[in-house]
């Protein structure tokens, strides 16, 4: 499901106009992104938790040349599903 399909599905289930629904979806995604950029966790009961995960600097290998290279530390977004979501996925 992509964003357009999500907007259509939510608009159909809520009775809101697609333009209003798209604004809501954009706002939710924007607020989650802002919270993560600020280092906060975002927990949605019954769905899961979004959090920032730190990756330490490390040495890797260039797969084409085999040469060692330094990979700098980075931050990425992670998601941990809630048990209710896991149960819904696994029957």
UniProtKB/TrEMBL annotation:
Biased composition (Polar residues): 61-75
SMART domains per UniProt: BHL
Annotated Pfam families: Bac_DNA_binding
A Gene Ontology molecular function term of the record: DNA binding
This protein's UniProt keywords: DNA condensation, DNA-binding
Top-level taxon of origin: Bacteria
Location of the region described as Disordered in the Swiss-Prot/TrEMBL record: 55-91
Family: Belongs to the bacterial histone-like protein family.
Protein name: HU family DNA-binding protein
């Amino acid at each position: 499901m992509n964003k357009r399909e999500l907007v259509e599905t939510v608009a159909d289930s809520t009775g809101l106009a697609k333009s209003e629904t798209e604004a809501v979806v954009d706002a939710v995604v924007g607020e989650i992104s802002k919270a993560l950029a600020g280092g906060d966790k975002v927990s949605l009961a019954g769905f899961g938790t979004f959090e920032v995960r730190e990756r330490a600097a490390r040495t890797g290998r260039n797969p084409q040349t085999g040469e060692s290279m330094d990979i700098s530390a980075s931050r990425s977004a992670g998601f941990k599903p809630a048990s209710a979501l896991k149960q819904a996925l696994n029957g």
